[in-house]
Design a protein that fits this description.
Helix 2 (61-74) crosses helix 7 (133-150) and helix 6 packs across helix 7 (133-150). The protein is 31% helix and 0% strand. The protein has 7 helices and no strands. The protein has helices at residues 39-43, 61-74, 76-79, 88-91, 103-107, 110-119, 133-150. The protein is an all-alpha fold. Bound molecules: heme C (HEC). Heme C is lined by residues 74-75, 77-79, 89, 94-95, 97-98, 105, 113, 116-117, 121-124, 127, 131, 139.
Protein backbone atom coordinates (compact mmCIF):
# COMPACT_ATOMS: atom_id res chain seq x y z
CA UNK A 1 0.00 0.00 0.00
CA UNK A 2 2.83 2.38 0.85
CA UNK A 3 4.52 2.11 -2.54
CA UNK A 4 1.94 2.95 -5.13
CA UNK A 5 2.44 3.99 -8.73
CA UNK A 6 1.37 7.59 -8.11
CA UNK A 7 2.87 11.05 -8.42
CA UNK A 8 3.39 13.40 -5.51
CA UNK A 9 2.58 17.03 -6.39
CA UNK A 10 4.99 18.56 -8.95
CA UNK A 11 7.19 15.43 -9.11
CA UNK A 12 8.90 14.81 -12.48
CA UNK A 13 7.89 12.05 -14.86
CA UNK A 14 9.28 10.41 -17.98
CA UNK A 15 5.75 9.76 -19.22
CA UNK A 16 5.24 13.22 -20.77
CA UNK A 17 7.80 14.91 -23.04
CA UNK A 18 7.93 18.04 -20.81
CA UNK A 19 8.70 15.75 -17.82
CA UNK A 20 5.97 17.37 -15.70
CA UNK A 21 3.52 15.10 -13.91
CA UNK A 22 1.33 18.13 -13.06
CA UNK A 23 -0.47 18.82 -16.31
CA UNK A 24 -1.44 22.29 -17.47
CA UNK A 25 -5.15 23.09 -17.08
CA UNK A 26 -7.37 22.43 -20.04
CA UNK A 27 -8.07 25.76 -21.77
CA UNK A 28 -11.22 27.37 -20.43
CA UNK A 29 -11.09 25.57 -17.07
CA UNK A 30 -13.01 27.42 -14.36
CA UNK A 31 -12.35 26.77 -10.68
CA UNK A 32 -15.36 25.83 -8.64
CA UNK A 33 -17.19 28.95 -7.47
CA UNK A 34 -15.30 31.15 -9.95
CA UNK A 35 -17.65 31.04 -12.92
CA UNK A 36 -18.41 34.65 -13.80
CA UNK A 37 -20.96 34.71 -16.56
CA UNK A 38 -21.83 38.34 -15.90
CA UNK A 39 -18.65 40.33 -15.30
CA UNK A 40 -20.76 43.44 -14.61
CA UNK A 41 -22.11 41.83 -11.46
CA UNK A 42 -18.62 41.38 -10.02
CA UNK A 43 -16.98 44.63 -11.09
CA UNK A 44 -19.77 47.12 -11.81
CA UNK A 45 -18.39 47.55 -15.34
CA UNK A 46 -20.09 46.03 -18.38
CA UNK A 47 -18.27 44.38 -21.29
CA UNK A 48 -17.84 47.88 -22.80
CA UNK A 49 -16.05 48.91 -19.58
CA UNK A 50 -18.82 51.42 -18.85
CA UNK A 51 -20.51 51.42 -15.42
CA UNK A 52 -23.65 49.29 -15.24
CA UNK A 53 -26.69 51.52 -14.72
CA UNK A 54 -29.19 49.16 -13.10
CA UNK A 55 -29.27 47.03 -9.98
CA UNK A 56 -28.83 43.37 -11.05
CA UNK A 57 -31.59 42.22 -8.63
CA UNK A 58 -34.84 43.74 -7.48
CA UNK A 59 -34.76 46.52 -4.95
CA UNK A 60 -36.28 45.57 -1.61
CA UNK A 61 -36.16 47.00 1.87
CA UNK A 62 -33.83 44.14 2.79
CA UNK A 63 -31.34 45.23 0.12
CA UNK A 64 -31.25 48.75 1.56
CA UNK A 65 -31.00 47.54 5.15
CA UNK A 66 -28.11 45.24 4.31
CA UNK A 67 -26.49 48.02 2.26
CA UNK A 68 -26.79 50.43 5.15
CA UNK A 69 -25.29 47.95 7.57
CA UNK A 70 -22.32 47.24 5.27
CA UNK A 71 -21.86 50.93 4.44
CA UNK A 72 -21.78 51.86 8.12
CA UNK A 73 -19.16 49.15 8.75
CA UNK A 74 -16.86 49.50 5.75
CA UNK A 75 -17.39 52.96 4.29
CA UNK A 76 -18.51 55.25 7.10
CA UNK A 77 -15.10 55.27 8.85
CA UNK A 78 -13.97 57.57 6.02
CA UNK A 79 -17.13 58.69 4.21
CA UNK A 80 -19.13 59.22 7.47
CA UNK A 81 -22.58 57.75 8.01
CA UNK A 82 -24.07 60.75 6.23
CA UNK A 83 -21.73 60.29 3.24
CA UNK A 84 -20.32 63.80 3.56
CA UNK A 85 -16.74 62.53 3.81
CA UNK A 86 -16.03 63.57 7.38
CA UNK A 87 -15.53 60.10 8.88
CA UNK A 88 -13.52 59.38 12.00
CA UNK A 89 -10.42 58.35 10.03
CA UNK A 90 -10.57 61.58 8.04
CA UNK A 91 -10.86 63.59 11.26
CA UNK A 92 -7.60 61.95 12.27
CA UNK A 93 -5.80 62.95 9.09
CA UNK A 94 -6.69 60.52 6.29
CA UNK A 95 -7.17 61.89 2.79
CA UNK A 96 -10.64 63.43 2.61
CA UNK A 97 -12.98 61.69 0.14
CA UNK A 98 -15.42 63.76 -1.89
CA UNK A 99 -18.93 64.11 -0.47
CA UNK A 100 -21.23 61.44 -1.93
CA UNK A 101 -23.76 64.27 -2.30
CA UNK A 102 -21.74 66.07 -4.96
CA UNK A 103 -23.70 66.55 -8.12
CA UNK A 104 -21.25 64.39 -10.09
CA UNK A 105 -21.70 61.45 -7.70
CA UNK A 106 -25.44 61.93 -7.42
CA UNK A 107 -25.58 61.40 -11.16
CA UNK A 108 -23.04 58.55 -11.20
CA UNK A 109 -24.47 55.18 -12.30
CA UNK A 110 -24.72 52.51 -9.57
CA UNK A 111 -22.00 50.49 -11.30
CA UNK A 112 -19.51 53.29 -10.57
CA UNK A 113 -19.86 52.69 -6.81
CA UNK A 114 -19.41 48.95 -7.33
CA UNK A 115 -16.33 49.64 -9.48
CA UNK A 116 -14.77 51.89 -6.80
CA UNK A 117 -15.35 49.23 -4.09
CA UNK A 118 -14.00 46.47 -6.39
CA UNK A 119 -10.92 48.27 -7.73
CA UNK A 120 -10.32 51.23 -5.40
CA UNK A 121 -9.70 54.68 -6.79
CA UNK A 122 -6.78 57.05 -6.21
CA UNK A 123 -6.39 57.34 -2.46
CA UNK A 124 -9.13 54.84 -1.72
CA UNK A 125 -8.05 51.21 -1.30
CA UNK A 126 -10.26 48.53 -2.83
CA UNK A 127 -12.63 46.61 -0.58
CA UNK A 128 -13.01 43.53 -2.77
CA UNK A 129 -11.72 41.22 -0.03
CA UNK A 130 -14.04 42.58 2.63
CA UNK A 131 -17.21 43.22 0.62
CA UNK A 132 -18.79 40.47 -1.51
CA UNK A 133 -20.04 41.35 -5.01
CA UNK A 134 -23.64 41.14 -3.85
CA UNK A 135 -22.94 43.46 -0.93
CA UNK A 136 -21.23 45.95 -3.27
CA UNK A 137 -24.60 46.28 -5.04
CA UNK A 138 -26.46 46.43 -1.73
CA UNK A 139 -24.15 49.29 -0.71
CA UNK A 140 -24.54 51.02 -4.10
CA UNK A 141 -28.33 50.92 -3.72
CA UNK A 142 -28.04 52.31 -0.21
CA UNK A 143 -25.73 55.13 -1.37
CA UNK A 144 -28.39 56.15 -3.87
CA UNK A 145 -31.03 56.14 -1.08
CA UNK A 146 -28.66 58.17 1.12
CA UNK A 147 -28.18 60.66 -1.70
CA UNK A 148 -31.93 61.00 -2.17
CA UNK A 149 -32.41 61.43 1.58
CA UNK A 150 -29.97 64.33 1.69
CA UNK A 151 -31.47 66.20 -1.24
CA UNK A 152 -35.14 65.54 -0.55
CA UNK A 153 -37.64 68.38 -0.87
CA UNK A 154 -41.03 68.86 0.73
CA UNK A 155 -42.58 67.54 -2.48
CA UNK A 156 -41.00 64.12 -1.76
CA UNK A 157 -42.94 63.81 1.51
CA UNK A 158 -46.45 62.33 1.10
CA UNK A 159 -49.01 65.04 1.82
CA UNK A 160 -50.57 63.24 4.78
CA UNK A 161 -47.14 62.94 6.46
CA UNK A 162 -46.13 66.56 6.16
CA UNK A 163 -47.70 67.65 9.44
CA UNK A 164 -45.30 65.24 11.21
CA UNK A 165 -42.20 67.03 9.95
CA UNK A 166 -40.23 68.56 12.78
CA UNK A 167 -41.91 66.38 15.42
CA UNK A 168 -39.68 64.01 17.35
CA UNK A 169 -39.64 60.45 15.98
CA UNK A 170 -41.30 57.98 18.33
CA UNK A 171 -41.04 54.22 18.05
CA UNK A 172 -44.29 52.53 16.99
CA UNK A 173 -46.49 52.04 20.10
CA UNK A 174 -46.17 48.24 19.90
CA UNK A 175 -42.41 48.59 20.45
CA UNK A 176 -42.76 50.63 23.61
CA UNK A 177 -41.53 48.66 26.62
CA UNK A 178 -44.03 46.19 28.03
CA UNK A 179 -46.39 46.38 25.09
CA UNK A 180 -44.76 43.87 22.84
CA UNK A 181 -47.38 41.17 23.36
CA UNK A 182 -44.53 38.71 22.91
CA UNK A 183 -44.28 36.15 25.70
CA UNK A 184 -41.02 36.40 27.58
CA UNK A 185 -40.56 40.08 26.77
CA UNK A 186 -42.64 41.55 29.57
CA UNK A 187 -40.84 44.06 31.77
CA UNK A 188 -39.01 42.24 34.56
CA UNK A 189 -40.72 42.26 37.93
CA UNK A 190 -39.00 43.81 40.90
CA UNK A 191 -37.12 41.39 43.15
CA UNK A 192 -39.04 40.17 46.20
CA UNK A 193 -36.96 38.54 48.90
CA UNK A 194 -34.24 38.02 46.33
CA UNK A 195 -36.57 36.10 43.99
CA UNK A 196 -38.59 37.13 40.98
C1 LIG B 1 -9.91 54.40 4.34
C2 LIG B 1 -10.87 55.40 3.92
C3 LIG B 1 -11.97 54.98 2.97
C4 LIG B 1 -12.88 53.95 3.12
C5 LIG B 1 -12.99 52.99 4.28
C6 LIG B 1 -13.73 54.01 1.97
N1 LIG B 1 -13.37 55.04 1.15
FE1 LIG B 1 -14.30 55.60 -0.56
N2 LIG B 1 -12.93 57.06 -0.82
C7 LIG B 1 -11.88 57.34 0.03
C8 LIG B 1 -11.06 58.40 -0.53
C9 LIG B 1 -9.81 59.00 0.11
C10 LIG B 1 -11.64 58.75 -1.76
C11 LIG B 1 -11.11 59.76 -2.78
C12 LIG B 1 -10.18 58.99 -3.70
C13 LIG B 1 -9.48 59.87 -4.69
O1 LIG B 1 -10.17 60.58 -5.44
O2 LIG B 1 -8.25 59.82 -4.72
C14 LIG B 1 -12.83 57.90 -1.91
C15 LIG B 1 -13.70 57.95 -2.97
C16 LIG B 1 -14.89 57.24 -3.05
C17 LIG B 1 -15.91 57.46 -4.04
C18 LIG B 1 -15.92 58.56 -5.09
C19 LIG B 1 -15.38 58.08 -6.39
C20 LIG B 1 -15.29 59.22 -7.38
O3 LIG B 1 -15.75 59.02 -8.52
O4 LIG B 1 -14.79 60.30 -7.03
C21 LIG B 1 -16.89 56.53 -3.81
C22 LIG B 1 -18.16 56.35 -4.60
C23 LIG B 1 -16.47 55.74 -2.68
N3 LIG B 1 -15.25 56.20 -2.23
C24 LIG B 1 -17.19 54.71 -2.15
C25 LIG B 1 -16.80 53.97 -1.05
C26 LIG B 1 -17.55 52.84 -0.53
C27 LIG B 1 -18.83 52.32 -1.11
C28 LIG B 1 -16.85 52.39 0.54
C29 LIG B 1 -17.18 51.21 1.43
C30 LIG B 1 -17.20 49.91 0.83
C31 LIG B 1 -15.70 53.24 0.72
N4 LIG B 1 -15.69 54.18 -0.26
C32 LIG B 1 -14.77 53.11 1.74
C33 LIG B 1 -11.63 56.75 1.24
C34 LIG B 1 -12.29 55.65 1.73
Amino acid sequence: MHNQPKYKPLRETVYYPDMRSARPLVAGTVARGQLRLEPGFYTGLGSDQQPVTTLPFSLTRKVLERGRERFDIYCAPCHAETGDGDGVIVQRGYLRPPSLHEDRLRKAPLGHFVDVVTNGLGGMPDYSQQVSPEDRWNIAAYIRALQLSQSATIADVPEDQRQNLGKPLLPPSEMIHGKTGVTGMEPSKPLQDGKR
